[in-house]
Design brief:
Blueprint lengths: L3 E5 L6 H9 L3 E5 L10 E4 L4 H10 L3 H10 L2 E4 L1 H6 E4 L10 E6 L9 E8 L3 E9 L3 E5 L4 E6 L2 E7 L2 E4 L10 H12 L2
Parallel strand pairs: 1-2, 1-3, 3-4, 4-12, 5-6
Antiparallel strand pairs: 6-9, 7-8, 10-11, 11-12
Bound molecules: glutamine.
Glutamine (GLN) binds next to helix 4.
Family: Belongs to the glutaminase PdxT/SNO family.
Keywords: Glutamine amidotransferase, Hydrolase, Lyase, Pyridoxal phosphate
GO molecular function, one term: glutaminase activity
Length: 191
């Protein structure tokens, strides 16, 4: 039996993640309230807008539920999802889920460059991966337990800390399934 992975479906790039995970051999469910987390082995926090996503998580009773889920299970945050997972966010008083020991800067690549693509080498994932960055954050610094998987212009844009995986770009918007496969493997390993 393949693992079942949830995609937080409050806002943002949901359907592309569903397809990429299914193509990587997982079963996929949408997560819209806390009950939807039952029976899942992993969770994806998609891109979108982190402040709005946090508001919606609070509204649908998902904030504590996701925090609890993450105590045992793997979580993969992409773009806004990475911001939700960070322990520190530049210019913001407190963090959101505070899962990953990283300090992030939002909209870090400048206003004039809203979105761009960059060729990345992602450790253990792919040596030629096209990262799609949309008003993307980057990781300013990471704790010693965080493994840096990819950098761009000297900034960390993908990392992992145990069962937590995060990237600043949108892996669901490329044809390369390597990063979703990596997460599905990680979820299998934590079963
Ligand atoms: N594409 C994205 O997810 C952008 C993230 C967004 N700029 C934020 O701060 O939440």
């Amino acid at each position: 039996m393949s693992v079942r992975i949830g995609v937080l479906a409050l806002q943002g790039a949901v359907s592309e993640h569903v397809r990429a995970l299914e193509n990587s051999g997982a079963q996929v469910s949408l997560v819209k309230d806390a009950r939807d987390l039952a029976g899942l082995s992993g969770l994806v926090l998609p891109g979108g807008e982190s402040t709005m996503m946090r508001k919606l998580m609070d509204r649908y009773g998902l904030f504590e539920a996701v925090q609890q889920f993450a105590e045992q299970k793997p979580v993969f945050g992409t773009c806004a999802g990475l911001i939700l997972m960070a322990k520190q966010i530049e210019g913001r008083k407190g963090p959101h889920l505070a899962l990953l020991d990283i300090d992030v800067k939002r909209n870090a690549f400048g206003r004039q460059v809203d979105s761009f693509e960059a060729e990345l080498s992602i450790k253990g994932v792919s040596e030629a991966y096209t990262g799609v960055f949309i008003r993307a954050p980057y990781v300013k610094s990471a704790g010693k337990n965080v493994e840096v998987l990819a950098t761009f212009e000297g900034h960390i844009v993908a990392c992992r800390q145990g069962r937590y995986l995060a990237c600043a770009f949108h892996p669901e918007l490329t044809d390369n399934p390597a990063l979703h496969r990596y997460f599905v493997d990680l979820v299998n390993a934590y079963q």
